[in-house]
Structure formats: structure tokens, C-alpha cells
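sry for the spam today, last one i promise. C-alpha cells for design, 240 residues
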């Protein structure tokens, strides 16, 4: 079901608005889930949103989402799930010197619309939000988010085997006492993997499933020799 993405500077009232939306949009016919920023950062937030998106429930993202690139990733997740979405900009607040710069939403960008803006104690435009979420047809999947057929029968088998081998190497290194900051070597991959913290089997398995899903969107036999390296790079970017 639909996705509501909140954005705004610290102190703009995003969490309060998320609670209002959960109360207004949830009910006996559907649940409303609030997904907040977590320790895992951007990748963990996106993964939790993708896990929650379904044909039934409403997902509300209570996070700064200050960068257009973050909002674009969430837009792509909604398109891939085939569900409607909207963006709620909580205006106001004041970011500190250590806060990342806030990129104002632009309604001319498809990932920033439909856009609703509230300031201070203004009431939420619930009627317009409900119409955008429940009365509008979701956009069709974009070519970049539509799952494509595999180009060869061996591609999926190779993808499954290579990612399993990488996970096995990472887990073996951790069991052998590899510490955060040390380089983990993966057979067949030139670059090593440096983890900033221990990673559980469950988290590694989740990241493997995500990588497989993304890779299947653009399958190519030309990528087969680089699959292990691509997966190691993906783990490096995703594990903060």
C-alpha cells in the first residue's frame, strides 16, 4: 500500500506529523507503519521501507530525507512495489552546523511529487493526502525498476553461488577473530572488505537478497566475472 515520505530539517515536527498520519491513515482495513531513521543509516532505512511495503499497509517514513538522492531511492522503491506515494515537507526547524545541508523538495521533479507542505501548527491536508494515496493510480514501474527476464539460464545460478561464497568468506573471517577495521579477503576478489563493526548472519543474508534483487533487474552475462567484486562493493557501501 502507499508510501508517505516525510522530509524536513531537525526540529520541524516530522515525528509529530508521522504520529498524526499513522492515526489518520491506519484503521481496521489497513495498518500504518512508521519507519524511523536507525543506526544503520540510509541503507538500513531503505531496506526497512522495502520490507514493509505491501499491497495492504501504509508506510510512513519519519526521517530527514534531506537529500534528493535519498528521496529518489524511496520513489524507486514505491514504483517497484507498484504503490502510490507522496512527499510531506515539514517546513521550519533549524539544522545545526554538523547537520547535512537540506535540499528543498522541488515539485517539478517526479520523485518530489505529489508534494504537500506544512508549517508549524498548520493542520495536515488529510483530504488531499488520502486522495493522492488511495484514489490515484500508482505510476507504472520504470524500466530501471521493472524486473527483467534473465538473459541466460545460468545467470541466476551463478549469482546465487557467488553471493553465497562471499558470505561464507565474511562469516569465516569473523569466526576466526577478524576485528572491525581489518581487511577481509574474499577468494577471487582483488579488493578486500573492511567492516566497521561485526555483522550478523541475518543482516548479511538480507543484504544478499537485496543485491540479488537489484542485479536481476539488469542481468548480463558480461557481468558474471565481476559478480563477486560487485557484491563486495555493495556490502562495503551498505554496512556502515
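last one done:
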Amino acid at each position: 500500500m502507499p508510501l508517505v515520505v516525510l522530509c524536513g530539517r531537525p526540529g520541524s515536527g516530522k515525528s509529530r506529523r508521522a504520529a498524526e498520519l499513522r492515526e489518520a491513515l491506519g484503521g481496521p482495513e489497513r495498518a500504518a507503519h512508521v519507519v524511523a531513521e536507525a543506526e544503520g543509516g540510509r541503507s538500513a532505512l531503505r531496506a526497512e521501507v522495502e520490507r514493509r511495503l505491501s499491497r495492504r499497509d501504509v508506510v510512513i517514513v519519519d526521517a530527514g530525507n534531506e537529500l534528493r538522492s535519498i528521496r529518489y531511492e524511496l520513489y524507486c522503491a514505491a514504483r517497484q512495489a507498484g504503490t502510490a506515494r507522496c512527499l510531506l515537507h515539514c517546513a521550519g526547524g533549524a539544522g545545526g552546523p554538523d547537520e547535512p545541508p537540506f535540499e528543498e523538495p522541488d515539485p517539478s521533479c517526479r520523485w518530489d511529487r505529489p508534494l504537500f507542505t506544512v508549517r508549524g501548527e498548520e493542520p495536515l491536508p488529510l483530504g488531499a493526502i488520502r486522495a493522492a494515496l488511495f484514489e490515484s493510480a500508482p505510476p507504472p514501474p520504470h524500466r530501471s525498476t521493472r524486473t527483467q527476464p534473465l538473459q541466460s539460464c545460468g545467470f541466476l545460478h551463478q549469482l546465487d553461488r557467488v553471493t553465497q561464497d562471499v558470505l561464507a568468506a565474511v562469516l569465516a573471517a569473523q569466526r576466526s577473530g577478524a576485528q572491525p577495521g581489518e581487511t577481509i579477503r574474499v577468494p577471487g576478489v582483488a579488493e578486500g572488505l573492511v567492516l566497521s563493526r561485526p555483522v550478523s548472519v541475518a543482516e548479511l543474508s538480507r543484504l544478499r537478497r537485496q543485491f540479488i534483487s537489484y542485479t536481476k533487474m539488469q542481468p548480463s552475462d558480461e557481468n558474471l566475472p565481476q559478480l563477486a567484486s560487485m557484491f563486495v562493493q555493495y556490502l562495503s557501501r551498505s554496512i556502515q
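The first helix runs from residue 14 to 25. ok im logging off now
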